Amino acid sequence: MKKLLANLLFLLLILSSTLSKAAAYWMEIEGTGKLNRAFTIRVIYGRIDDFGIRHRDTGKELELAGEFKVKVLDASGLQTNINLVKKSDCWEGTYTPTKQGIYRILGINDTHPVVDRSATGGKNVRPIDYLCAAYLAGSNNAEASPAQLLDIVAFSNKGIITVKAYNNQAPAKAKTTLRVFNPENWEKELTLDDGEAVFKTTIPGLYIIRQDWEDTTPGEYKGVAYKSVRHRCNYSLIVKP
Questions:
Q1: In this structure, is residue 18 part of a structural domain?
Q2: What is the predicted pLDDT for the residue at 164?
Q3: What is the mean pLDDT of residues 59-82?
Q4: DSSP SS3 for 135
Q5: 194 in a domain, yes or no?
Q6: Could you tell me the superkingdom of the organism this chain comes from (predicted)?
Q7: What are phi and psi of 77, to 5 degrees?
Q8: Which of 11, 125, 160, 184 is in the most buried spot, having the most CB atoms within 10 Å?
Q9: Structural domain of residue 49, as residue ranges?
Q10: 195 in any annotated domain
């Protein structure tokens, strides 16, 4: 009986670890691409199951998703803050484009509590999450520019996606690794060369492109000391059929 309980506990720990690694925040953008027609912005926290299917979570993590500060930048750099409203499985806001061009949707959550591992002898880490996406209204598909500390921009040409990653407005260092999750959540790693990498899409749907960066400057947040800050940027790319 003790052996059975031990095995069950071990399996539970493995499952918990797997789910935590597969969980993430992301955005979904939905609209017609037409001027003067509102598009919808959804901020989601979810996980990936053993079959590669994304599920939206509705627990306390959904509450934390509402702490993202979201804004839209138009092609001229004009910034509009977006008011998010809680739904059953996401936070939702809208924006109406009035000029042709690329609109950047950006989000940041720098209010996460420090991940405190002191009880087990681990390193305390402060997580900061960034979200980004782009929305084309009309034509004039000009290339977007970086606008937040950790940022990603991407553009498509005949199924080939060019990704540019930035750290503090400058191209990310050579050999920086990005992770790409396709709509079936198969993962591919990209290695940056001069801040840029390319990949080919396989199927239509939502691709999530992730950049991580660790700032090893120690500090304190909400009364808890930390050894480093984990910055994570998730870029949401919709590939249409």
A1: no
A2: 96
A3: 91
A4: strand
A5: yes
A6: Bacteria
A7: 95, 0
A8: 125
A9: 25-239
A10: yes
